[in-house]
Structure prediction request, 200 residues.
Amino acid sequence: MQDNASFRYSPLLDIEGTCLLLYQVASIQPTTADFDASSDTPVETLHVILLGFVKYFWRDTVSRQDEGGKRRLKARIDSFDVAGLGVDQPRGTTLVKYAGSLTGRDFRVILQIAPFILYDLSPIIYEAWQALGHLGALVFRPVIHETAVYLIALKDAINDFLGATALWSTRWFNKPKFHVLIHLTKHVERFGPPLLYATE
Prediction:
């Protein structure tokens, strides 16, 4: 690029058609009509699933336990064999005592072990945890082999989860994350597996 006192010049401008292309690019005026927030922003699974549903459910589940129930819950977590899950052994005391201030990593472990340690809760609450576990297994899958089959299974899992949650308590639906979840199937069609855009 030559630099003269009067102007800057690029040899690229000598290539036939370059000036026309630059003019066309410069004349594009994107509008807000080109952007649809609900379809152009994928569901963020870390915040919606782990720091949303799992956190809400876990805090509520722990708060419903008396001291004996909390001791049993800690013992079950401490004795749970996590071989094959790819995580460190969870500490029951930490997960129960600090239920309101855990991290996404903690909630990922809770999501995986909850159906095995919460089996003696009320059937309605346990069914909601099972539905959330099934949904989590689909959402955190890194590869989708048959998209059409996966989308049907995902839609069914979302509906099962929402139905089980409604039986537990309709107050959960005051949180916008439950509405955002409904868009997940469309976002999978557009962006691919949710795990690929689960960013911090």
User: Anything to note?
Assistant: Residues 43-197 form one domain. Strands lie at 2-3, 8-9. The longest strand covers residues 2-3.
